[in-house]
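re: that chain from earlier
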Amino acid sequence: MKKLLLLIAIAMFCSYGFSQTQEQMKAWQDHMTPGKHHKWLATFDGEWTGDVKMWMDASQPPQASKMSTTNTMIMNGLYQKSTHEGIMMGRPFKGQGLIGYDNSKKMFISTWIDNMGSGIMIMDGNVDKDGKILTTIGIMDDPMTGEALKVRQVLTYMTDDKHLFEMYMNANGEEFKTMEITYTRKK
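^ sequence. v structure.
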């Protein structure tokens, strides 16, 4: 009986794999081919120095620090991997992001992890019509309250050698800026 079920499963898989129409094959090819949004992401490739401002309390001045970032396009230019190192809140900080443009969903999707927590933040969004500002929105868990916080991130292309990252959180119905990083390309 197990052999019969295995043969049926193999036959179904093979028939599906070989019976795709030209339109279906083109759709798959389009889905896996880097386009203008991937090329836009690639402009952020390289080594960067980040001047960080972080607000733990909106009524207080921000904490300032420096960080180092490396951005690299991977997987045939479909995704950008970012690695970050620095000092945050007086502690060694390491973070890693992955972002790509989903050709089928027509939006950017990103993930973020770091050594300051055990959660994975997932965000999505799009670039403005001028191709300068990427805004993504997602949810992150607040370990202090156990509640979900709405997060908005804004990445602004300024020049080939400078860009600005801003992060906002929404708690109790109010949005406030929590982080700002001005990135300058290392020469």
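The CA atoms of residues 9 and 35 lie 36 Å apart.
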